[in-house]
């Protein structure tokens, strides 16, 4: 009885923190007039749900329960999304998979905003946390949706994407997203691109917008459950019994099982193949063991890969120390009871473009609250994310960015002045049913 009373009486207000000097942004007001406001004022007016109370479902009262339900819950009948997949061959021989929805978008105007999504550790477009937002966001406006397009960028080897080069992906490798954005912005040149990302993908997206600064092809970004300081969060995860033996080993097992599916594609005497062979031979590896044996070698391209150690990889790839370089609106939401991410940089290095939000509960990518009906749940996170996407997609007016022009060379789409990157579309477009996950992998992480 006492724990129930504590659950009911606790205040569940989100901490929203802005730097002292908020960025000045242009916004559309009534009658299509444009005015300048501080980003803080813009968000307070356009995203009221960010300040609303989030009370977790009574039977999911803490971060462990929220996280485990995200992993083990049955979401197969909820938020169904159908995608059309486009495979991109990258200049280094690798392949990424772009899953577009709606499948038939011919009725949408050319300037319809596009939500560009990066998934979590070993996930893909099928993840429940992805579909929970994309299913309603891509519904027509008259049905209560935003009426937007969306595209999920599936990392190499994830969600059925083939591995065609001696490399996978990691928290610090941003070039695959960069090249995917070449293609998306070329295919839809009039559409604003709105970033939405989860967990490991959130770290990649944060680093991308920091590296690009004012030249980011994303107009805005929303990052959920970002792991930020990789070394600190890995250390804190390993410091507890449940952290080491449930979460870290669960993620390590996912990564090893994913690697096993693709190890045969690597040339036997390649350094990545040797690292893969040693990695899949590990017994009950934690995520840091996987990174020490494989990610430091096969998680990105040279330079800067390979790294001497997992800690060197963590130092390079962390996103908490690049927040000061971001020059577009970025909303970051974490949960204070997230058992996977316990170190969150709420000061955002004083960058006025960044809004940091910390819910008191919600676990890792959970944020489940009670819905109508006994035992029914919904995700609180949908409301503030919806408001953010609408506000930055339709009301925020961005100064014309000075992107490097795109051109085609030997069949590859490239940016002028950058020879190492390029992509081209492969033949064939498969229809992907978003609720079909991958066997042998725990979803939700």
Automatic annotation (TrEMBL):
GO terms for molecular function: acetylesterase activity; monoacylglycerol lipase activity. Residues 113-342 form the AB hydrolase-1 domain. InterPro entries: AB_hydrolase_1, AB_hydrolase_4_sf, AB_hydrolase_fold, ABHD4. One of its GO terms (biological process) is medium-chain fatty acid biosynthetic process. SUPFAM superfamilies: alpha/beta-Hydrolases. Signal peptide: none annotated. Pfam families: Abhydrolase_1. The active site is at 199 (charge relay system), 338 (charge relay system), 364 (charge relay system). It comes from the Eukaryota. Belongs to the AB hydrolase superfamily. AB hydrolase 4 family. PANTHER family: ABHYDROLASE DOMAIN-CONTAINING PROTEIN (PTHR10794), ALPHA_BETA HYDROLASE 1, ISOFORM A (PTHR10794:SF63). This is AB hydrolase-1 domain-containing protein. It comes from Suillus luteus UH-Slu-Lm8-n1.
């Amino acid at each position: 009885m006492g724990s129930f009373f504590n659950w009911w009486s606790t205040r569940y207000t989100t901490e929203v923190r802005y730097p002292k000097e908020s960025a000045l942004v242009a916004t559309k007001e009534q009658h299509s007039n444009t005015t300048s406001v501080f980003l803080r004022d813009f968000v307070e007016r356009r995203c009221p749900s960010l300040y609303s109370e989030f009370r977790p479902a009574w039977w999911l009262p803490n971060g462990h329960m929220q996280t485990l339900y995200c992993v083990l819950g049955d979401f197969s009948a909820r938020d169904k999304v159908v995608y059309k997949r486009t495979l991109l061959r990258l200049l280094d021989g690798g392949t990424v998979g772009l899953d577009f929805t709606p499948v038939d978008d011919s009725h949408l105007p050319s300037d319809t905003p596009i939500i560009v999504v990066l998934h979590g550790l070993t996930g893909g477009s099928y993840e429940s946390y992805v579909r929970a937002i994309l299913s309603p966001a891509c519904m027509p406006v008259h049905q209560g949706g935003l009426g937007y397009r969306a595209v999920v960028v599936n990392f190499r080897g994830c969600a059925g994407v083939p591995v065609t080069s001696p490399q996978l992906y990691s928290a610090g490798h941003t070039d695959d997203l960069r090249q995917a954005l070449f293609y998306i912005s070329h295919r839809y040149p009039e559409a604003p691109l709105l970033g939405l990302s989860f967990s490991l993908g959130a770290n990649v997206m944060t680093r991308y917008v920091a590296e690009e600064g004012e030249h980011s092809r994303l107009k805005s970004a929303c990052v959920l459950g970002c792991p930020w300081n990789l070394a600190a969060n890995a250390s804190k995860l390993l410091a507890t019994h449940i952290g080491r033996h449930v979460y870290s080993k669960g993620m390590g097992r996912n990564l090893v099982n994913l690697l096993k599916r693709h190890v045969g594609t690597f040339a036997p005497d390649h350094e990545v193949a040797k690292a893969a062979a040693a990695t899949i031979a590990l017994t009950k590896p934690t995520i840091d063991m996987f990174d020490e044996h494989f990610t430091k070698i096969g998680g990105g391209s040279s330079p800067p890969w390979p790294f001497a150690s997992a800690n060197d990889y963590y130092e390079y790839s962390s996103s908490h120390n690049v927040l000061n370089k971001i020059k577009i609106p970025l909303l970051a939401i974490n949960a204070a009871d997230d058992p996977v991410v316990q170190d969150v940089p709420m000061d955002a290095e004083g960058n006025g473009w960044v809004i940091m939000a910390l819910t008191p509960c919600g676990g890792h990518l959970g944020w489940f609250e009670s819905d109508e009906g006994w035992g029914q749940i919904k995700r609180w996170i949908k409301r503030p994310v919806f408001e953010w996407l609408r506000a930055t997609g339709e009301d925020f007016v961005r100064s014309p960015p000075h992107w490097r022009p795109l051109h085609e060379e030997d069949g590859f789409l490239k940016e002028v002045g950058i020879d190492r990157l390029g992509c081209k579309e492969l033949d064939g477009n498969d229809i992907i049913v978003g609720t079909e996950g991958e066997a042998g992998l725990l979803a939700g992480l």
